[in-house]
Amino acid sequence: MLTTFFQPPRPGGGPRPRARHRRTLSALVAGALTATALVMLPATSSQAAPAPAAQNNVDPVEGGGDLGPNVHVFDPSTPDIQGTVDQIFKEQESAQFGEGRHALMFKPGTYDDLNVQIGFYTAISGLGLSPDDTHFNGDVTVDAGWFDGNATQNFWRSAENLSLSPVNGTNRWAVSQAAPFRRMHVRGGLNLAPDGYGWASGGYIADSKIDGEVGPYSQQQWYTRDSSVGGWTNGVWNMVFSGVEGAPGQGFPEPPYTMLETTPISREKPFLYLDGDDYKVFVPEKRTNARGVSWEGNQQGESLPLDQFYVVKPGATAATINAAVDQGLHLLFTPGIYHVDETIDIDRADTVVLGLGYATIIPDNGVTAVKVGDVDGVRLAGLLIDAGTENSETLVEIGEEGSSASHADNPTTVQDVFIRIGGAGPGKATTSLVVNSNDTIVDHTWIWRADHGEGVGWETNRADYGVQVNGDDVLATGLFVEHFNKYDVVWAGERGRTIFYQNEKAYDAPDQAAIQNGDTQGYAAYKVEDSVDTHEGWGLGSYCNYNVDPTIRQEHGFQAPVKPGVKFHGLLTVSLGGMGHYDHVINQVGEPTQGSDTIPSTIAEFPLP
Fold first, then answer.
1. CB atoms within 10 A of CB 120
2. Among residues 377, 513, 380, which one has the least CA distance to residue 439?
3. Which of 199, 370, 484, 514 is 20 to 30 Å from the Cα of 216, by its Cα?
4. How far apart are CA 383 and CA 444, in angstroms?
């Protein structure tokens, strides 16, 4: 394979940082459960008939029903599909902090001559059981014309469960954070850069097959999991692969590839599909030492009929949502914005909570938005949690404090759950995500204290901690956490593992004193507590862009005890254009970042050999 290393030119050389151009924008601008046979699995405790009595002073909740006004369902005979999707794109193209939420769903069949452009808060998916059931002779496109060719703010959009034959042989998917590409089959190549090879800061691919070559070009970092690719052209800073057939070989730091032959534990995200005329949700089974896609051959999992879901629509209250869970229903959130004045409690094993079209939950009065009990097998997926104006101590909790049960056989999964503090308006939260349950899988999350938009400022959208992990044997695959006032990630559980981590420190620290951490300059982007004996990470990067006070020094990007069981592979720190600097990569190890050329400081293995 011919491997090239492409970086878009700029004065001073090196890849262009996205940071200061984010600032430019702010300056401008839901009967008995019946497992339907695909693969028949035993009924679980979650499959109890809904109770007839009212719960929490709420009338009994009915399962099933229509999918609401913001789910757009097409079949090959639907007139003017192109016109409909073009109109939605026109509304969503630059609506970065708008209120529109859309799910574009395509019934099995073949669709010719389509180019579906995907804007903010828009999710496109096929309604087949396999991606190949729904085929486009055409493209699903993300570009960055709305932002002058800069793709670093192409957030909050997704593509799932489709196959594509791109018109010119290569599909363009130029995204940054919170834009998953799942269960996709591209019968051609995939270009991850915007037209003109402008800045890009993605991204995430899982359970997908790209027959041709993937070209990251200007993408600064990327994580690909349990997939198949026909080739991979280049890397800028940090390209991580686990369980990917056709992935390039290990090479970090030159080339910047970190590669695991398999993913130790994975379970794909639940998805809505059609069985004849009936909507169902397929819940894939857990895989161990996974490699390649899950959907070729006899895919393992369970099919749940829609009438066993409360189909949540805008205007639903937290009391009704909780009553539905009490009755034994799963939750399918349709696209929309949901204010909740009490916590959504998911305390029944194997409950599926699935959001469509970036369904957004905003906690009012400082409550926690979502709490999952210390139970087996909850699937929490496809939600955006937006902090409210009154400070929440936490936004999402998995398990109660002190949780000790093992969930190794049936872990809870958190997938495509994104958390935002500020940006769409003022918001505050002390800690965004707390993981107390053992064996939890956190598979692709972007947890973001906003650096641009409305309600942004060092104290205005105060958020001290991004992720706190207390449970043991927690696995994170595709962890993106940015801009917190103190620690972005603190890991206290034993035998934790992270495969791919992307971080930026808070741009807006007013001065060195604001981030002083005792005797240490700055808070680590990723801290493993001193009490931990075993921890491992692959492909972790932290960037700084202290654009308020460029003289700020960050002592290190990573902090961990020096013990035989604590290991890291492929670490890097980057100063974006010289706006602040790191003195070390991890602890007191690693060269400082220097100058304004945006050149990473790297460590291939820690502890050092």
1. 24
2. 377
3. 484
4. 12
CB atoms within 10 A of CB 42: 7
- Work out whether strand 257-260 and strand 238-245 pair parallel, antiparallel, or are unpaired: parallel
Distance CA 322, CA 280 (A): 21
- The set of residues, in sequence order, having a beta carbon less than 8 Å from that of 339 and lying 6+ positions away, is 362, 364
| Whether the bond into 607 is cis, omega within 30 of 0 | yes
Contacts of 409 (CB under 8 A, 6+ apart): 376
Asked if residue 130 has pLDDT above 50, the reply is yes
Alpha helices in 290-370 (DSSP H): 318-327
Is the model's pLDDT at 46 over the cut of 90?
A: no
pLDDT digits (tens, 9 = 90+) for 409-445: 999 999 999 999 999 999 999 999 999 999 999 999 9
pLDDT at residue 3 is higher than 80: no
Query: What pLDDT is attached to residue 53?
Result: 37
pLDDT band at 27 (very low <50, low <70, confident <90, very high): very low
- Which of 62, 504, 529, 591 does the annotation list as catalytic? 504
Cβ-contact 74, 42 below 8 angstroms: no
What confidence score (pLDDT) does residue 159 get? Answer: 98
Give percent of the chain above pLDDT 70.
Answer: 91
pLDDT score recorded for residue 4: 31
Examine the residue annotation and report whether 254 is marked as an active-site residue of this protein: no
CA distances from 141 to 45, 114, 556 (A): 42, 10, 38
What are the backbone angles phi and psi of residue 513, rounded to the nearest 5°?
-65, -30
- CA 275 to the chain's CA centroid: 28
pLDDT band at 56 (very low <50, low <70, confident <90, very high): low
Q: What is the DSSP string of 77-89?
A: T-TTHHHHHHHHH
Alpha-carbon span 71 to 359, nearest angstrom: 11
Mean pLDDT of the region 462-488: 98
Q: What is the 3-state secondary structure (H, E, C) of 223-290?
A: EEEEEEECCECCCCCEEEEEEEECCCCCCCCCCCEEEECCEEEEECCCEEEEECCEEEEEEECEEEEE
The two three-digit tokens of residue 377, written as one number: 């097998």
Structure confidence at residue 59 (pLDDT): 86
CA-closest candidate to residue 370, choices 310, 53, 355: 355
Rg (alpha carbons) of the chain, rounded to whole number: 22
Q: Any idea which residue has 């932290």 for tokens?
A: 542
